[in-house]
Amino acid sequence: MVIDNQIGGSMLYRTYDELTEKERMELRSLRNQVSFCLKGEEKKNRVAIHLALYLMYKYGNTNDCVSYKEIFDEENYDIKAILDEYFNENIWNELCSRGNQFSAEAFFNASFMPEDYDPMNGNFNTPSSIIKLANRILSVEDGETVAEFCCNKGDFLISNCFAEKKCKYIGYDLSTESCAIAKIKSALLDHSFKIVQKNVLDLDFEFEHDKVFSDFPLGFRLNKYNKDNMITEYNKLFGTDFTNMSDSWLFVLSVLSTLSKKGRAACIMVNGPLSNAIDNKIREFLIKNNYIEAIVALPAMMFDYTGISSALIVLNKYKSDEKVKFVDASKLYVKGRRQNVFSKENVDEIINIYENESQYSKFIEYERLVEENYSLNIKRYLKEEVKFENLTKIDDVLISVRRGATYSAAQLDQISSTEETKYQYLMLGNIKNGMIDDNLPYITEINKKYEKFCLNHHNIVISKNGKPFKVAVVENLDERKILANGNLYILELDEEKINPYYLKAYFESEYGSAALNAIAIGSTIPNIPLKDLKELKIPCPALEEQEKIALKYAALEDEIRMLNIKLERAYSKLKEVFISESED
C-alpha cells in the first residue's frame, strides 16, 4: 500500500499493483539512489536499505543533518537494536545529501515496494494477489488475533493493517534479516504488528490465533532427526500415532495447534501431500476431526521461486458440516512473462465459486472422502461427470497387472547389444503417438528371473510416470521377446471380457485421459499408484459394442502407420534433392 505522496500524485492507500508504470519507475529510482548510498557489502543488505528508507521518512526533512543517533526516538528499542547492527553515520550523511530530492511520503512508499526473489537471503515472496485471495477467504474482523506464519517481511499483516482492521497482529519467522525488515515496516505503521523470531514448528506459542495465513517455503525439507522429534511432539499434543508424513503437513499441524476454538487458517502447500500414500493417516485425522473447510487449487507459476503447482488449504476449528469444499482456481489467472497473477476480477470469481457450487467447485461429503481413501486431490472430485453404463473396475477384466523390470543404467549397458538379437527392451521413449517403435534397442539376453516382465501379444502398456500418460497395445511379436522397463505397467487382459483396442481407445479419449490424471499423485512428476489403477472404473459394454469401437480405432491406427511410412520416404527424398539435381 502507499499513502498520498508527491510522486505521480498517488491516491490514498493504493497498492503497488495499482500504481502507474511511471510511478513505479520513480519509486525504483528512489530505491536505487538509497542503495547507492550504502557502502561496500551494505549495498547488498536489504535491512540497511529499509533502515535508510525508514530514517529518511521519519527524520530526513530535518534542516540540520545532525547525527541520526541524536534525533532517533530512544524508546523505539526494536529499531535501535537493528540500527546498531546494520547502520552507521557515513550512510546517514550520504543519505542526507541526496534525500531532499524526495518527499518523506515517497520514502514511505518505497519501503512497501515488492522486492526481487532472493533465496540466499531468505527472501521468498508471497504474491500480493494470493494474499488478496487469502484475505477475502479468511475475512478478518475487528478484535481478532491475526497471525502470519513464515511471515518474511509481513506482507499479509501489512495488507490487513492498511485495511484498518483493529486487531492484534503477530508475525513469526526464523530469519533474522526478514524479522528485522518486518519490524522496520511495523515501525513505519506506528508499530501496528508484533514480530517474533522463532521456528514456527516449535510448539511454544504465547497466543492462540483467530485467523492465520501461512506461506512456508514450498519444497522445504527437514532433516530426519528434527522431523522425528517434531512428529513425536505433535503426537503428544493431538493424541495421534503418526510415524511419518510430508514436511508440509508439519507446518499445517503447527498452524492448527495455535487456532482458537473458532479459528480459521489458510495455508499454501504443494499438491503432492494432498494425495500421497505416505500422508493417508494425517489426511484421515484432519478429515475425521472436521478441520478442513476447503481445498483451493492454485495455478502453476504463481511464485517467483518455483513453477510447481500448489493449493490453499483452509482450516476451520468450528465448522459443523462434515463436508470439504473443493475449488478449482487453476485456470483463473492472468498470464505473465515469468509469473502468473490473479486480477481483481479473478479474485472476485474465485470467491464467488468458493461461496457457491459450480462446475469449478463442489462440496464433498465425508463418506465420499472415505471412499477415496481420504485423498484431497481435487481432480478426483471435480472431474467432469460422464454417465457410462456397465462400469467395472479394471482389476475385474485383468488376468494380471505388473510393473516392468527395474534395471539401472549400468545393468542395461552390460546387456545392450549393437547386433540384432531376438531380445529387445521397451522404454518409455519408445512409445510415440500411442504406438511402439518398430526399432527397439537390442539386448543380449533376458535373465530367467526377469521373464515375467516380458510382453505378450495384446498386452497393454501404460506409463507409470509423467504426463500425458502413454498407452500402447503390444502386437506382432513373432519370435521376439521384449522386456518392459520399470516405468511401464503391463496389463494382461481377459479378452473374453474386454478388447485391448477398445480399452486403448478409451484411455486415449478425453474421458479416459481425465480418469488417469485423476488418480495420479505427485506434484513435480505425477505417477499412477498400482493400487489406484486396479481400482479405476472403466465403461465395459458388451463385446459386440467394444468390437465396433476397436475396429474403427485399429483401422485409423493402421492409416497413421501408412502415413508415417510415406512421411519417412518423403523425408528421405528431401535429403537427396540437392545431390540428384546437381548430378543432372
TrEMBL record:
EC number: 2.1.1.72
Enzyme class, broadest EC rank: transferase
Pfam families for this protein: Methylase_S, N6_Mtase
GO molecular function: DNA binding; N-methyltransferase activity; site-specific DNA-methyltransferase (adenine-specific) activity
Annotated DNA methylase adenine-specific domain residues: 121-385
UniProt keyword terms in alphabetical order: DNA-binding, Methyltransferase, Restriction system, S-adenosyl-L-methionine, Transferase
SUPFAM superfamilies noted in UniProt: DNA methylase specificity domain (SSF116734), S-adenosyl-L-methionine-dependent methyltransferases (SSF53335)
Residue stretches making up the Type I restriction modification DNA specificity domain: 393-558
Known catalytic reactions: a 2'-deoxyadenosine in DNA + S-adenosyl-L-methionine = an N(6)-methyl-2'-deoxyadenosine in DNA + S-adenosyl-L-homocysteine + H(+)
Listed GO biological process terms: DNA restriction-modification system; methylation
Record family assignment: Belongs to the type-I restriction system S methylase family.
Record protein name field: site-specific DNA-methyltransferase (adenine-specific)
Protein species of origin: Floccifex porci
